[in-house]
Structure formats: C-alpha cells, structure tokens
Here is the input.
Amino acid sequence: MAEEIADRFNSVLEKIETSAIRSGRNLDQIQLVVVTKGQSSEKIEQVMNEGARILGENYPEETHKKILELGPARKNVEWHMIGHLQSRKIKFVVEDFSMIHSIDRAEIALDLSSKLEQSGKKIPALIEVNLSGEESKHGFSAWNEANWPALVDEIEKIRELIGLKVTGLMTMPPFAEKAEDSRSIFKKCFRLIEFYQKKTGNSAFNQLSMGTSLDFEVAVEEGATYIRVGEAIMGNRNYLK
Ligand SMILES: *Cc1c(COP(=O)(O)O)cnc(C)c1O
Here is the structure.
C-alpha cells in the first residue's frame, strides 16, 4: 500500500510539472493539496513520508480525530479546510486548520472570523464560487456575469474581517466524465479573478483553488495555484465518517 501511494503521489507530481511546462507556468506557483477525507491515519502518514506538505479535509471532526492519532507527525503538514463548513464546527477549524478554501456564504465568514480573532488568529481564506449554476454546488452565485460587480462588493466586505486574509477564489465544476469538460469553468474562474483585480486594483487577490483527481492537469493549464487531489493519490476513500 505504501508503494502504491508513493507511485501515485510521484506520478501526480510529474503530471503537474508536465502541465506547467506545457502552459508556460511557474511550478512554484502551484501547490498540491492532498485530499485525505475518508482516508486512514496510516495512509496519511505514508503520503506525509513521501513529502506531502498540505492536506485537505472536509469534515473537521474527522480531521481532529486523525490529528490526535498522528501525534507529533502532524506538525510536518498544514491542514486546509476544503468542504462546506457548518457553524457548529467552527471551533475545530479555529483549532486545527491553517487555511480555508470554502468560504461559501457571508455568515460563515463573519462567524469564523470572529472566533479566529478571539483566539488571536488570522488565516488565509478563499471565496468559493458556483460558476455552473448547479444547485447542489455550494458557493457564492457567479454563473451569471451580470452579478459579478455585486459579488466583488460582497468580497470586499469579507476582506474587512480581521480573522481572515482573503486571497482568492475556489471552485468545484459540475461532476464530469472527462477532464476537458471542466475547462470552461476553470477559464471562467480565471476571468472572474481578473475582473475582480481590475475593479479593485488589488492584484494580491490572486489565488485560484481548482482541479481534482479528474481534471487537475487542465486546472494547472488554466491558472490554478492550488489543486486538490484525493483519490488519484490516496486510492479509494471509504465513505464512512
Ligand atoms: C473530495 C474533494 C476533492 C478531491 O476529490 P478527488 O476526486 O478525490 O480528487 C477536491 N475538492 C473538494 C472540495 C472535495 O470535496
């Protein structure tokens, strides 16, 4: 099992590099988030040994349990929250996570920020946008470009919150059969961040979290700065929480 994880991890790294070269991107600007939801602490330890530095998780209580199981080894990695956050789970995020990719509504930004501030913390955060209009997707509505100016204003309000350092956008395309199906959504996300930068003059808002096991190579080509890869590295998840 350890060998399989090592092989898959290295194969993903190679594909990231190939895609970056193909599209003239700088590898330093692309961070791999290894998504470990539904994976055992043993497998997490293996991928950490291979050199994974950022782990992505969706369920804060599950993460908390794993962190306790991992003991001191957990210090070698950063944990990023990538899933829909319920208000009652905020305290786990404050304790365990060093970044959140999934600010999907104004209230959670407000509540999380205030709890972080109380703990003397400030963490990087991305605004999750729904670019497809699919109802099952979380995130701020952004499929209709006529709403982009209002969205920019909303993001500017969130940027005033003390506990969060808002650095860019995250998106999850609709379920796709093949990688190419996601390209138009990734392009749209890139256009949205350009729109934001132009309207505000804030070019430090420049992080794009997009691409999963299926389509991370396309995401790299379209400007992703974080890609979130789970099963292509870790193997099948067990969906029991
Ligand atoms: C689970 C998950 C991923 C990883 O998906 P894989 O198909 O395992 O690569 C990425 N992003 C989010 C938001 C997820 O929930």
User: Anything to note?
Assistant: The first helix runs from residue 2 to 22. DSSP finds nine helices and nine strands in the chain.
